[in-house]
Amino acid sequence: MFCFTIVQAQSEPNQAVIDSIHRNVLSFKDRDSTALAAANYALGEVYRYSFFADSAYYYYHNAQKYYESKKDNYKLARTLYGIAVVQKNEKDLTGSELTSVRAMALLEPLNETEEVIEAKLRIYNNLGLVFGELEQYEESVSYYKKSIELIEKLGGDNRITMYFAKNNLALSYKKSSAYELALENYGQILNNPDLIDIRPDFYALVLDNYAHTKFLNKNFDELPNLFFEALKVSDSINPGGYNSISINQHLAEYYHYKNDVTAAKHYAYQAKNIAQNYHKDELLSSLLLLSKIEKGEKAVEHLSAYIKLNDSLQKNERAIRNKFARIRFETSQIEKENIQIAKERMWLLIISVVIIIASILLYLVIAQRNKNKELQFIQQQQETNEEIYNLMLSQNESIEEARALEKKRISEELHDGVLGRLFGTRLSLDSLNMNNSLEAVKTRGQYIAELKTIEEDIRKVSHELNTDFVSGSGFIDIIKTLVETQTMAYNLTYKLEHDDDINWDAVSNKKKIHFYRIIQETLHNIYKHAEANHVNISFKLKNNVICLSITDDGSGFDVNKAKSGIGLKNINSRINEINGTLKITSEKEVGTTVIIEAPIP
Fold first, then answer.
1. Cβ atoms 78, 119 nearer than 8 A
2. Which H or E run contains 534?
C-alpha cells in the first residue's frame, strides 16, 4: 500500500540485510536473471531509504536492465519509480520528471489491478513533489488530484493514504498562495479525532502546516497555540526530531512578524541546531531565516554560511548527476561487449532496424497525410464560417434596405397626401379671412397658425423618415445579438458602446468576421476563467483605427506568468490577419482589460 514517507535522518543501511542480499546475488549470478533483478532492486530500495543516492541508483539501474530485457513492464515501472525518487531527492528534477513519465507510460496499458493502481499512485505523488519543487504548482495540484482519484478506486480502508495525498495537495495550494483551499484540505484531515493516536507524527506535521497557512493568510486566530501543540506532539514522539525543524522555523517566522526578536531568535536557533543532524536543505533554510532575523555582523555571518552551503549543495548535486551518468555509461560499455560477442545476430539486428525505419517512415507519411487532411478540413470549416457570416451580414443589409424603403414610402405619403390637404385647407381659411369680423378673423388666424405648426412638424418627420439613419448599423446589430446571447448564457451583465463615426461599410467583411470571433472567444474566456459579473464592450475610432476594448470585473491574473492557451493563440492569429495589435492588462481581484486596435483599410 502506498503511504506518505516522513523524511528521516541519513543513516547507515542495515548491513546484515545488505550482506544477505549480496549472498543471494552471488548464488543467482549466471543462473537466474529474474532473481538477480529482484536482488538488485531490493538493494536499491535499501540504499534509497538510507539516502545513499549513488549506490541506490547503481542497483536500480542494474535491475532496470534486467526487467527491460524480460519486458516485465510492471517491475520495470516500479524500478524506474525508485530511480525517479533518487533523482528528485538529489535535485535532478527534470530527470525525475522524465523517468516518472516513462514509468507511467509502462503502466498505462496494464490492467488496473490494486498493485498497478498503487504504483501509479506513487508516481503521481512523485510528479506532484517534482513540480512543487519547480514551483509549477498548477501541474503539482493536478497530479495530486489524480492520486486522490486513484486512492478512491482502492479497496479497504485508505483514509490515512487519502490524508497523506490531501496533505501534499494542501502544501501545493499553500505554496501557490491558495490559502483558503489549503486550509480546507488541512481541516478535512484534522477533523479525524483518531489521527493523533493513529499517526501522531503525521498529525503534528499537518497541524504545523495548517497553523503556518493561517499565519501566511494573516489569520492569527489560535496562533501561536497551534504551533505549540504541534511541537508538543512531535517532541513526545521524537524529541528534537525532523518534524520539529519546520515547526521551530514557523514559530520563528511568527515571532519575527510580531517583532518579538528574542522569541524569534530562540526558535530560529532551535531549528538550526536540529537541522544540523538532518538533510542539508533544512539547515540551508534555517540559515536564511537567521540572516533575516539577526542584525549586523551576525546576519552577514549567517548569510555567508547560507551562500557557502548552497554552493556546496549545488556542487554535490552536479557531482551526483555526473555519477549517475557514469553509471549509465559503464553499463552501456558492458552492453557493447555483449553485442561484440553476439556478432552472428548482427544481420538480424540490421534487418530489424531497416524494418523499424521503414515503419517509421511509413508512419510519418501516413501521419503527414492525415495532418494535411485535418488542415484542409479546418480551412474548409473556416471558409464555411466566413460564408455563413457573410450571409448574416447580407441578410441584415436586406432588412435594413427594406426598412429604408418603407420609411421612404411613408415619407412620400405624408408629403404628397397629408401635407397637400393641410396646405389647401390653410389657403381656404386664408381667403375666408377677408370677409369676416375681427373676432372671426382672429379665431381663424389662430387655426391657420396651428395648421402651419402641424405642417412644419409633419415636414420635419417626413425629412427624418426619409434619412437613411441606420446606414452601417447592421454589423453593430449582429454584435449586439452575439453579446446578448452569450452574456445571457454566461449569466453576465453587459454594456455595449460604439462610436457612430465608424463607417462599417468601409470595413471589409473579413475584418468584421475577425472582430466578431474575437469578442466571442474573449467572452468565453471571461466565463471560463474570470468568474466575472459584468463586462464592458466598446468600439472607438482613433485616427482611422478601430479600437475594440473588452473589460471585465473578474478575478484577474498575472499577465507575465499566464500560459498562452489555444483561445489566446486563436485571438493572436486573428489580430495578425487584420494587421492589428493586442494589449492585455490585468489586476488580481480587480479585473482584466483586452484592447485590440486595427486600421479600417
1. yes
2. strand 534-542
> How distant is the alpha carbon of residue 591 from its chain centre?
18
CATH class assigned to 474-599: alpha beta
Q: Residues 6 or more apart from 591 whose CB is under 8 A from it?
A: 530, 532, 551, 552, 553, 554, 556
| 144 touches 124 (CB < 8 A) | yes
Is there a contact between 161 and 2 (Cβ–Cβ < 8 Å)?
yes
| Measured CA distances, 345 to 41, 68, 111 (Å) | 30, 19, 34
**From CA 556, how far away is CA 529, in angstroms rounded?**
9
Model pTM greater than 0.85?
Answer: no
Q: Report d(CA 264, CA 227) in Å as an integer.
A: 13
- Tens digits of per-residue pLDDT, 460-494? 666 655 544 434 457 888 899 889 988 998 899 99
* Contacts within 8 Å (CB) and 24+ apart, 390-395: 390/509, 390/513, 392/478, 393/474, 393/475, 393/478, 393/509, 393/512
Classify residue 421 by burial, with Cβ atoms within 10 Å: 0-12, 13-18, 19+: exposed
From CA 547, how far away is CA 582, in angstroms rounded? Answer: 10
State how far the Cα of 68 lies from the Cα of 2, in Å rounded to an integer: 24
Strand order in the sheet with 493-498: 493-498, 534-542, 545-552, 591-599, 581-587
Contact 405, 412 (CB under 8 A): no
